[in-house]
């Protein structure tokens, strides 16, 4: 009898230890919130091992001591998935996400915003777990979606995977799906150790996870730092009233599975896009690699209504931002000449899809950049395009340089007009020295002249300007004003009506303000803001061109460099001639209106409080307003001054609290007289 009781006690203690160990494991590996010290945990574990050694008949496969069990396998048996493991449709742009939403609402016949679950797309290995009576029976890889491999022994070593379900209430049969991955920090640590030991390093965390799961000896897998996020239920007994994806994830968490804390339920596609943008911007902070965001219709009834295409569900999509760098080949380098004569090398590339668009040209900036890249024609190059930024060549695969690769020769003559190309002392940019007689400089100069912030001549685009220059109809901007409708109508693809419109647009631009005209001249370093400041200061073109560098520097924002560029511009005869011809053509640039002399209390906020003896509140307010002040009824940190007469209460206290200056009536009157003088 005594012996029997003892056996029962042992069994009870074993079970109690297992429950404790599972709880601590769950806290540590699933919730990321450890509840005991390592030493305490080890003590519990050692006690369990000791009892099981003494009573082997008590060992069960679900015991935490049995995560690593069994002999190494010789191969992984193939497992057919009872329900295929689907893959996801993909999109790379927000526009496509909106189309996805529009399509689903059309199919569902609803105008209403849909609820979506948004979650990270973990870059790991897809795995399916099968539980019967709450116990892990089988784990399989996704394989081709129809058949995978039985990796149960290896999955059992992952402490984030429950060997038995937690809680009291679970289905008899449950299939859970998720992604096994290697945390980045563990990946790095693993490689550091491997390097130190002279062992093979892992290529990246995903390969690390895949390779670890394919170890024939589970003891090897156990040594690899793997974790698992579960993202859905495959099959479940009937009678579990789960109505939505997010609700099912909450269930999974209750049963002891690790679910991703970044998952959110949001309403409407705008909120989805918001999630995607915010989440992707934070991806560097995560301890795991992702390859996008998965967006799923949350409501199960709607999921069922939408159904599944051959291999992908209609109700879900993966958003994968297009890679911002791609590898392609440099076919040729051309040289372009800009408005200021700058000769810019342009890479002609084998077309490549990068940053969401197909790119076949990239800027190479200048000859220093070509040298820095060590670039040859024929090289394999990395092209980068992020956002709306112009595509750039960022790196060259010099190791894979073909024998036939050619050096890039920077021209010493302008590729357009043949004039000498020179590089000013200390400058990185080489320029064609021909100025406006170079057709390329002229074309770009005219385009600048006609551009929106300058003379704003609608219809004067690159095709028209190029023809005007090629046919020698225009040699500078002033010539534009001599063009008649007939001449314009004679250009290729220029209908009579467009010619008339263009003519009217050119003539109409004569009355543009002085600031636009100064900007339109295309003086180096003179942007729109500087042009506006110059216009306000000098008030006419002749006054501007007579100005010497010293007086130019009187203008706000004009320093020595800008002053020199302006002075040099007007030293050149052809520029003076251009200005004269523009004026002769009827340009009447109006100077900007004089700025009103600013009121002494402009932008200030004053508050009156208490009683004033010598004048009424109304009078005081009127006189302050006449000086440009706003008079407000309450005091804040933004208040500039408080006038406090006898009886001032809360407002005076507020002024002191905010450190706002306070005047009594005498000081106030004094100040008014000063300011009104
Ligand atoms: S749902 C029916 N959710 O992406 C939808 N998949 O192309 C099935 N993946 O290899 C997948 N994170 O393992 C889903 N949060 C997530 C995911 C995710 C990663 C993987 C999945 C599969 C691939 C789908």
List bound small molecules.
Answer: 2-(butylsulfanyl)adenosine
Low-pLDDT sequence parts = none
CA distance, first residue to last residue: 114 Å
Spatial strand order of the main sheet:
2-11-10-3-9
CATH topology of the largest domain: D-amino Acid Aminotransferase, Chain A, domain 1
Rounded mean pLDDT score: 92
Which structural category fits the helices and strands?
A: alpha+beta
User: Tell me about the biggest sheet?
Assistant: 5 strands, mixed
Any guess at the CATH architecture of the largest domain? 2-Layer Sandwich
What portion of the residues fall into strands of 2 or more residues? 15-25%
Rg from alpha-carbon coordinates: 38 Å
Write out the CATH superfamily name of the largest domain: DNA ligase/mRNA capping enzyme
* Assembly type: single chain
Tally of contiguous helical segments: 24
- In the CATH scheme, the class of the largest domain would be Alpha Beta
**Fraction of residues in helix:** 25-40%
**Strand segment tally:** 22
Approximate shape:
extended
For the record, the count of structural domains works out to 5
């Amino acid at each position: 009898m005594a012996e029997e009781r003892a056996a029962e006690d042992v069994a009870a203690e074993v079970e109690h230890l297992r429950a404790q160990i599972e709880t601590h494991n769950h806290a540590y590996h699933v919730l990321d919130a450890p509840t005991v010290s390592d030493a305490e945990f080890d003590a519990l574990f050692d006690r369990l091992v000791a009892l099981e050694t003494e009573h082997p008949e008590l060992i069960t496969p679900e015991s935490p001591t049995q995560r690593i069990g069994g002999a190494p396998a010789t191969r992984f048996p193939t497992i057919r998935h009872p329900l295929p493991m689907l893959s996801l449709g993909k999109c790379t742009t927000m526009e496509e996400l909106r189309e996805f939403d529009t399509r689903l609402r059309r199919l569902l016949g609803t105008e209403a915003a849909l609820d979506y679950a948004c979650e990270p797309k973990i870059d790991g290995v897809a795995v399916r777990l099968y539980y019967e009576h709450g116990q892990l029976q089988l784990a399989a890889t996704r394989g081709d979606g129809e058949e995978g491999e039985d990796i149960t022994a290896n999955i059992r070593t992952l402490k984030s995977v429950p060997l038995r379900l937690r809680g009291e209430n679970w289905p008899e049969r449950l299939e859970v799906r998720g992604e096994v991955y290697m945390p980045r920090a563990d990946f790095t640590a693993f490689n550091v150790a491997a390097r130190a030991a002279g062992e093979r390093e892992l290529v990246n965390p995903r390969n690390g996870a895949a390779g670890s799961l394919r170890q024939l000896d589970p003891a090897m897998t156990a040594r690899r730092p793997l974790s698992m996020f579960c993202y859905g239920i495959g099959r479940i007994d009937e009678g579990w009233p789960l109505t939505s994806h997010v609700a099912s994830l909450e269930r999974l968490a209750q049963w002891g599975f690790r679910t991703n804390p970044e998952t959110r339920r949001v309403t409407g596609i705008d909120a989805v896009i918001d999630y995607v943008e915010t989440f992707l911007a934070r991806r560097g902070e995560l301890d795991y690699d992702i390859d996008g965001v998965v967006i799923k219709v949350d409501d199960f009834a709607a999921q069922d209504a939408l159904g599944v295409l051959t291999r992908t569900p209609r109700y879900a999509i993966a958003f994968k931002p297009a890679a911002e760098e791609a590898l392609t080949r440099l076919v040729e380098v051309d040289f372009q000449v800009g408005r200021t004569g700058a000769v810019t090398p342009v890479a002609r590339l084998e077309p490549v899809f990068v940053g969401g668009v197909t790119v076949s040209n990239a800027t190479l900036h200048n000859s220093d950049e070509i040298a820095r890249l060590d670039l040859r024609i024929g090289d394999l190059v990395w092209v980068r395009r992020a956002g709306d930024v112009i595509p750039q060549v960022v790196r060259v695969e010099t190791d894979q340089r073909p024998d036939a690769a050619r050096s890039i020769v920077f021209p010493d003559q302008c590729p357009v007009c043949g004039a000498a190309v020179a590089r000013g002392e200390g400058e990185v940019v080489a320029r064609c020295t021909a100025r406006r007689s170079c057709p390329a400089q002229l074309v770009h100069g005219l385009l600048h002249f006609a551009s929106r912030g300058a003379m704003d001549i609608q219809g004067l685009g690159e095709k028209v300007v190029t023809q005007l220059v090629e046919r020698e109809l225009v040699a500078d901007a002033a010539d534009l004003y001599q063009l008649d409708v007939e001449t314009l109508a004679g250009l290729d693809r220029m209908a009579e009506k467009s010619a008339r419109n263009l003519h009217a647009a050119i003539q109409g631009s004569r009355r543009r303000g002085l600031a636009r005209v100064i900007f339109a001249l295309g003086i180096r370093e003179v942007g729109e803001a500087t042009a506006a400041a110059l216009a306000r200061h000098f008030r006419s073109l002749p006054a501007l061109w007579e100005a010497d560098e010293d007086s130019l520097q009187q203008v706000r924002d004009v320093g020595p460099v800008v002053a020199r560029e302006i002075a040099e511009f007007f030293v050149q005869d052809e520029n003076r001639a251009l200005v004269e011809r523009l004026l002769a053509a009827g340009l009447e640039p109006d100077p900007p209106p004089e700025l009103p002399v600013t009121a002494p209390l402009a932008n200030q906020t004053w508050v009156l409080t208490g009683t004033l003896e010598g004048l009424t509140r109304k009078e005081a307010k009127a006189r302050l307003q006449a000086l440009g002040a706003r008079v407000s009824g309450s005091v804040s940190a933004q208040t500039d001054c408080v006038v406090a007469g006898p009886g001032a209460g809360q407002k005076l206290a507020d002024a002191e609290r905010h450190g706002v200056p306070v005047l009594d009536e005498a000081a106030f009157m004094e100040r008014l007289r000063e300011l009104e003088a």
